[in-house]
């Protein structure tokens, strides 16, 4: 793993914790770092000072011992010498042992209770000409400064003492413990302060975050409190202004949407009424007149067997019959009477039948409706299926198609599928092509959904779902999704 990746990983972990934890972490980390640094520095300085002091003390005690032992050695007062060593040990708690050796290296007297350790003799040999010689010895009880001081330039012997560093270690332990206690105390106090301060600092930010989440969900009502007259306070004001503006715009949008829906509903209803009226007119008046004309021409043909215009009458009758068929067809397309009279199932079956006959594309029709649906639902589904079939004929180059209409509880569902060339549903066709848009509008107006699934060369499926429970609406929550 490269250094960059490691840094990225660390940043990912650090960046993921909350602001409160970050501030707390920084404060506590700083205190602990400072405390550990101070402890190490203090221990280092104290060790250096005490080491020098102990060495000095070792030299001065052994010099003192050497000076005071001179007379006693000259007088060969062994008892006095022993007392002198005991006294030296008693007066200097750091001194672990003391002994005196004669010029030949034989121990004259010592303070070891369990016998003299002979190894010691070889460790620190005093040079007769030097004033003293100190060696640092590692023992089971720690370090010992062993100082040898020649007595009368070594002519009558050498005084040696061993000074332990136990007092220094004890002092260091006490200092470390005290410093650690201070760090813990300061950390706790600072930690509590930091918790309080970060709470004060992050409270408005958390309020902003929560309000922003509500806004993201479309709720523009929450306002944040201006806690303080600082930058965060300004941010809170800016946020409140923004949500107010958003709420106003949203209100405006809803009103416009409401009006648009109202208008759309009106347009569609008026269009259907007009179509119905024209279709009725064509059927009831124009078709009747044409029928009369055809009948009249036929009578003319029969009664005027000798008439010269007989072939003319036949031609005219054929023209009139063709026009009648076309008018019938036009009337059907405008508004099939069967939709009003017999309902959606019959109207769709007839539509599919005529569509197959005209475009020569087989259509598999399954309609599972046991009863009539509300008029506006029947009209909407009929028109959507009609437009879908027209699209298939115009664009799909399909070899087969299927239509399924079924009722599921309070929902009517229609699926129209073809195996044609398909198209990219994400392309916006609404500018010049109104068919799909009209289908969507019709479904929307009834609180329904229209979903189109299609991909180039993979056919097209149109799904329509319209609830039957809701009234013809101008309400909320219409969802139309193009998949
Ligand atoms: N079943 C289908 N198969 C392939 N392409 C389709 C199908 N249905 C729609 N399309 C594509 O989607 C486009 C938009 O269709 P839409 O019905 O909105 O417009 P149109 O049919 O071109 O014109 P109109 O406004 O007269 O309906 C079509 O031009 C066509 O490219
Ligand atoms: Mg179309």
Order of helices and strands: HHHEEHEEEHHHHHEHEEHEE
Whole-number average pLDDT?
87
- How far is the first residue's CA from the last residue's CA? 43 Å
The CATH homologous superfamily of the largest domain is termed PAS domain
- How many H/I helical runs? 11
Low-pLDDT parts are 473-483
Q: Can you list the strand order of the major beta sheet?
A: 2-1-5-4-3
Major sheet characteristics: 5 strands, antiparallel
The rough form would be described as rod-shaped
Radius of gyration: 55 Å
Bound heterogens, unique: adenosine-5'-triphosphate, magnesium ion
How many individual β-strands? 10
Number of domains: 3
Q: Could you say which structural class the secondary elements and strand pairing correspond to?
A: alpha+beta
């Amino acid at each position: 793993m490269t250094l960059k990746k490691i840094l990225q990983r660390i940043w990912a972990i650090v960046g993921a914790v909350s602001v409160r934890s970050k501030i707390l972490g920084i404060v506590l980390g700083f205190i602990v770092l400072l405390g550990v640094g101070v402890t190490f520095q203090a221990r280092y300085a104290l060790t250096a000072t005490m080491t020098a002091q102990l060495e000095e003390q070792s030299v001065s005690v052994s010099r003192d011992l050497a000076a005071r032992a001179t007379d006693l050695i000259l007088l060969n007062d062994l008892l006095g010498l022993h007392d002198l060593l005991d006294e030296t040990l008693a007066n200097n708690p750091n001194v672990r042992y003391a002994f005196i050796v004669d010029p030949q290296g034989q121990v004259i007297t010592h303070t070891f209770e369990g016998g003299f350790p002979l190894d010691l003799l070889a460790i620190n040999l005093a040079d007769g000409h030097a004033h003293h010689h100190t060696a640092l010895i590692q023992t089971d009880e720690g370090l010992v400064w062993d100082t040898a001081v020649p007595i009368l330039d070594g002519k009558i012997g050498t005084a040696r003492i061993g000074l332990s560093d136990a007092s220094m270690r004890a002092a260091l332990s006490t200092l470390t413990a005290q410093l650690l206690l201070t760090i813990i105390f300061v950390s706790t106090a600072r930690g509590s302060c930091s918790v309080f301060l970060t709470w004060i600092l992050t409270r408005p930010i958390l309020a902003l975050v929560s309000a922003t989440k509500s806004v993201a969900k479309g709720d523009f009502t929450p306002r944040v409190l201006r806690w303080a007259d600082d930058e965060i306070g300004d941010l809170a004001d800016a946020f409140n202004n923004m949500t107010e503006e958003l709420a106003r715009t949203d209100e405006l949008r809803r009103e416009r949407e409401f009006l648009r829906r109202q208008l759309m509903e009106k347009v569609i209803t008026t269009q259907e009424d007009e179509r119905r009226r024209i279709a009725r007119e064509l059927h009831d008046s124009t078709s009747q007149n044409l029928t009369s004309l055809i009948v009249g021409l036929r009578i003319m043909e029969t009664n005027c067997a000798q008439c010269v215009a007989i072939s003319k009458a036949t031609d005219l009758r054929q023209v009139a019959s063709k026009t009648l068929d076309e008018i019938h067809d036009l009337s059907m397309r405008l508004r099939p009477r069967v939709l009003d009279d017999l309902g959606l199932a019959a109207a769709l079956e007839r539509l599919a039948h005529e569509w197959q006959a005209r475009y020569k594309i087989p259509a598999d029709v399954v309609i599972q409706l046991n009863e009539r649906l509300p008029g506006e639902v029947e009209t909407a589904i009929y028109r959507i299926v009609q437009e879908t079939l027209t699209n298939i004929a115009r664009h799909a180059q399909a070899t087969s198609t299927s239509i399924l209409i079924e009722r599921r509880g309070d929902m009517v569902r229609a699926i129209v599928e073809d195996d044609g060339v398909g198209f990219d549903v994400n392309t916006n066709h609404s500018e010049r092509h109104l068919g799909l848009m009209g289908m969507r509008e019709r479904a929307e107006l009834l609180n329904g959904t229209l979903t189109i699934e299609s991909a180039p060369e993979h056919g097209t499926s149109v799904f329509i779902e319209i609830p039957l429970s809701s009234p013809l609406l101008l309400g909320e929550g219409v969802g139309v999704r193009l998949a």
